[in-house]
TrEMBL record:
InterPro entries: Methyltransf_12 (IPR013217), MeTrfase_VrtF (IPR016584), SAM-dependent_MTases_sf (IPR029063)
UniProt GO BP: methylation
Protein name listed in UniProt: Methyltransferase
Residues of the Methyltransferase type domain: 69-169
Length: 236
């Protein structure tokens, strides 16, 4: 485990990851993150995926706790906009890309009572000292290689080990089958997959539900546009 002033490094070195894992996070440079909220959340999500970002904020409003971990945090926009149930929450941000950790830490410094940052890969076992009451991951699965049934199950198993027993694991992801009904989303997903920014050609709603069923006794799953929203509660 390496530690520097910005984050605790729980990940491998970059050359130990597959080229697909690298490609799924390398677009998030510090200069792209300056425009991320506008381009990804307000333009692409609203107009291509037919899902305005308020829907993700609503999900966060429903499930955030005062001891929250966010993985694939990006800029931290959703945590900035959502309402925490306590005044000064403990927020932990986690991402494979240090740029996202640096940007989200900068934005959340005024909101958090305590702010931790970890570099880690969602597809590997994650060893934090503390456990969390809520774990969020928005727009992460569609960046990560593999079919949703396998990658979501792997992620849920990794995260269940660092979730408190009564906690919740929730998120949103763009699914390929939901994106095929409109020209703009069809074209958008095709291009993003071609570039390696997206890896969701094998992601379908029934397979996401199968991964939820495999890991949770009690879960929620709904769809807005091309985006699936999920929350896993009691574990199996
Ligand atoms: C599309 S952004 C989502 C940002 C934010 N959650 C949102 O909803 O706006 C995806 C984020 O996931 C991170 N990411 C991509 N692959 C990852 C992986 N294998 N493990 C952890 N984080 C990853 C990227 O670096 C980026 O910050």
């Amino acid at each position: 485990m390496q530690q520097d002033q910005f984050y605790i490094d729980l990940g491998l070195s970059e050359n130990q990851y597959s080229k697909e894992v690298i490609a799924g996070q390398q677009v998030y440079t510090s200069s792209f993150l300056r425009f991320y909220d506008l381009i990804v959340l307000h333009i692409i999500s609203r107009w291509l995926w037919r899902c305005p970002p308020q829907n993700m904020v609503d999900l966060y409003n429903k499930y955030l706790s005062g001891n929250h971990l966010d993985i694939g945090v990006g800029t931290g926009y959703l945590l900035q906009k959502a309402k925490f149930p306590v005044e000064k929450p403990t927020i932990s941000v986690m991402d494979l890309n240090p740029n996202s950790l640096i940007e989200s830490k900068r934005r959340l410094a005024g909101i958090a009572g305590q702010l931790n940052a970890y570099r880690a890969n969602i597809l590997e076992p994650i060893h934090t000292k503390e456990k969390f009451d809520s774990i969020g991951m928005s727009f992460l699965f569609h960046c990560v290689p593999g079919a949703i049934r396998k990658k979501a199950s792997t992620a849920f198993q990794n995260l269940l080990k660092i979730r408190k027993p009564e906690g919740v694991i929730f998120g949103a992801t763009g699914l390929h089958d939901l994106g095929q009904t409109h020209l703009l989303s069809r074209r958008g997903m095709k291009n993003l997959n071609k570039k390696g920014v997206f890896h969701n050609t094998e992601d379908t709603l029934p397979d996401l539900e199968a991964a939820l069923k495999e890991n949770f006794k009690d879960y929620e799953l709904y769809v807005i546009g091309a985006i699936a929203f999920f929350a896993g509660k009691k574990a199996k």
